[in-house]
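During the reporting period the student researcher (J.K.) took over the structure-prediction task from the postdoctoral fellow and processed the backlog of single-chain submissions. One of the processed entries is reproduced below for the supervisory committee.
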Amino acid sequence: MPLETVVVPDLGGVDSVEVIELSCVPGQQLKSEDALVVLESDKASMDVPSPVTGILQRYLVSEGDSVAVGDSIAEIITEAPLEVHEELASEPEAELALISTDAGQSSLIHPTSPDLTMAGVSSTDPMETDRVLRVPDTGSDTSLEVIEVVVAVGDEIVEGETLLILESDKATIDVPAAESGVISAVLVALADKVNSGDPLVRVASIHGAGSQSFSSDSLIRAKNSSANKLGKVAKLDGVDLAKGPVSSAEQAVTALPLVRDRFGSTEAKEVYAGPAVRLFARELGVDLTQVTGSGARKRISRDDLNAFVKRRLGENVVGHQPLHTGLLQAEDFAKFGSVESFEMSKIQKLTADNLHASWSAVPHVTQFDEADITELEGFRKSLVDEAKKRSLKLTLLAFIVKAVAMTLRANPVFNRSLIDDGASYVQKDYFHIGIAVNTPRGLLVPVIRDVDKKSLWDLTGEISELAGNAKQGKLKVADMQGGCLTISSLGALGGQGFTPIVNTPEVGILGVSNAQTKPLWDGTVFQPRLLIPLSLSYDHRLINGVDGGRFMLQLVKILTDIRHLTLA
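J.K. obtained the following C-alpha cells:
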C-alpha cells in the first residue's frame, strides 16, 4: 500500500513551531481531517489534520521538536490500487516477499503494511498465533502512565528490547519484550493508565510451525524490494534498508530525533527522555542535553531533572534559559475537603508565563479616568439599522479602537518598543491595535492592522471576524503579531476598573470596564450621563506620568465628542 507523507502546512509567516502533542498512536485508523499533531508557537496552537483516510504508519517527529513549513511529520498508509499489487507480483525480485501460509497460498509482505502476514500466521485468522504482552508485576497497586510508546505496528522486535515506557510518581519503567516477533497491534496510547497484567501490545511470531523459516535478513530484503518497486526508499525503524540489517542498539540511536534548541539549532544529540520529562524540562527552561540520565541507555528521569535543577540553582546558572523561581509550593489541599485537579491548557500556561515575565521585568504604572460616552452611545444606536443592512453589529469597541489609534498617532511615545536589553528603542510608524479575546483555550490577542486607514464599518467587520476565529481556534500566528498597543475590554463584567498588565514588547495597554449612568454636574444641575471607566497601564522605563496623562486626556476627549474622529 502506498504511503502519504504529511508535512507542516503554512504557518502564516512563522519560521518554526514546537510539536507539543502527538494526537494518535502508530497503527491507528485515521479519517481525513482527524488531528495528527498539535503545533504551538509563542502565542497560539494549531491542529494538523490528516489529509487522507488510512492507517498511521509512524511519526517522523517527537514531542518537543521544532519544525518548519514543509517538514515531514508523519507517514500514513493509504489504500493501494490493484494494479500496484499486480506489478509487484510480476517482478522477479518480489518473490522474496512471498511467504507460504497454512492454506498453501502466498501472501505479499508490504514494507509498510501494519497487518504484515508473517510465516506461521494464518491468512484467514491472523490473530490465532499472536501473543499478548502485558505489564509485568510492578510490586504496587498504583496505576502507571504510558509516557512513551517505542514500537509501532509492523516493527520487528527481539526479546529484551524496550516496548514502551511507564512512569509513576517517582520513577520511569522500561517495559521489555518477553519474546521476539513482529508488532501486530499496539493496545495502549500515550497518557493511558495501566496496572500489572494489563495488555500492552500484540506480537506475531516470525517463525511458525508448518511453515518455512523467514529470517530477519530475508524480511529486510523483501521489504526493500517491495518498497523499491513503489519508487520509495524503504526504511525500517528509521534505518535505510539498502545498507542491510543493523543491531537493535544501532537502531535505537539512529531513530533518535534531532534535538533543536530555542535558536533553531539542528545539531543531532542523543537525548533519552519521555514526553512528560521533556514537558517538565521545557517548563523549567532546562536544556536536556546538559542533563545526565541514570536510567538504561542514560535515560533521563524526573528525578534526574530535579537533581540537575537543584545543583544548578546552587550555581545560579541553568543552561541558557532562566528558571521560574517564583513557583508556589504544592500543598495537600485534600486534607481540608474534597478537591479536583486540572491541568492548565498550553495557551493558559503560555499566557501565565508571559504575564509573569512582563510583571517581573516591566515597572508598571496605571492611570485611571472616565469618558462621557452619552453622545457616542446615542450615535451608535442610531446606526443599528444601517449595520443590519451590512450584516454587521456595530459595537462600542470599534469606536474605542479607532480612538486609540488616533490618540497613538498624537502620542508617539506609546508607539515604541525597547530593544537591546533596554539600551535602545524603536519608533513605529504604523498603528496596529491588539484586542484581548477570551477563548475556551485561554486568552488570545489578535491584531487589527492599519487601524488609522480603516473606517468604523471596516473595523466592525474585522473585529467580529478575528474574535470569531480566536474562539474557534482558527487564528494564525501572524494574526497575533505586530501590535502597537492592546485593548482589554471587560464590558459588563469590568466593574469600576482594573490594572491590566502590559503585553510586551508593547509599552502600553488600555483596560475598558463597565459603562454606567451616573449623575454629572454640568455647572448648574446634575445630569444623568453614561460614563465608561478607563485604565491605562504603561512601561515606566519609556513613558513618564505626564506622557500617560496626555494620552488619557486626549482619548477621553475623542470618546466624549466623537466629532474629533473626523479629524483623523
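The committee noted the following: The two ends are 63 Å apart (CA to CA).
J.K. will present the remaining backlog at the next meeting.
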